[in-house]
Design goal:
Rossmann fold; 16% strand; globular; UDP-galactose 4-epimerase, domain 1; alpha/beta
Length: 322
Amino acid sequence: MAHRVLVTGSAGQIGAELVPHLRGLYGSDSVVAAIHRSPGGQSLRDGPLVTLDTGDQAAVSAALKEHRIDTVYHLAALLSATGEKDPQLAWTVNMDGLRNVLEASRTNGVSRVFWPSSIGAFGPDAPRTDAPQNVPLNPTTMYGVTKVAGELLCNYYHGKYGLDVRCLRYPGLISNVTPPGGGTTDYAVEIFYEAIRTGAYTCFLREDTILPMMYMPDALKATVQLMEAPGSKVPRHLGYNLAAFSFSAGELAAAISKRVHGFKVSYSPDSRQKIADSWPQSIDDTEARRDWGWKPDYDLGGMVADMLAKLGPRLRAEGKGV
């Protein structure tokens, strides 16, 4: 099946890797990368690239028409820690942007929309381990509030208008391509950069803080797998729980230390610790595994090995490695 794809937030952590991934599957000319302020990397320029403010519904609609888009991956958002610094902006970017994309999609014949939810949708009253698919969602951040409201809005557009909207509740994501972008789980990316650059890292979470995490290749795999699944395999249009592995900050530091001799980590929790403490340590993704066959490829050891193998040579080539 031919696709004409638009990816908003293409310069972000997920988009910067999803765009090249989709172009590899569907062809470079078939995947339009949309950016807002960030210029994005060279990989985004290997195919169609547009500047788009998802806060402008008319502009979104025009982009869908001009490029004959049938599938949208709407990734533009403010993340958890950044959103707490300006909650009103987080609501505007995350909710108004989603509403505009959904409305423009339904009125322009888009057949399928992807939108990322998050473990941020959970609150402190959710089970700490193996948080189930269906549990009360009472987040304590504006980011989390927008994820809960966004899931409901996606489900509404499916029920009201028949728009095929699909959602994943991503855990924390670890990328060897895109630098951290303001999320509470970003320590798990920063720590690799500092291990290679300086041999030392000060973590903004406690050593015993355990969170659900995932390596970006698995996140890309899950996203495409969900979007390509037949409609009969995707009965859920609220967010699917998605899991790979959980670890503490100390466990990650120890795993890196086995491969980076002399690496030292200290801990100085800041405001992000409170956010992390409000999230489950692990989540149950039985429904994703059952409905459309989800299964991760990477465990903690495999992720650490691949991160260092990919990131180390690149940073050293740039003169940024010890």
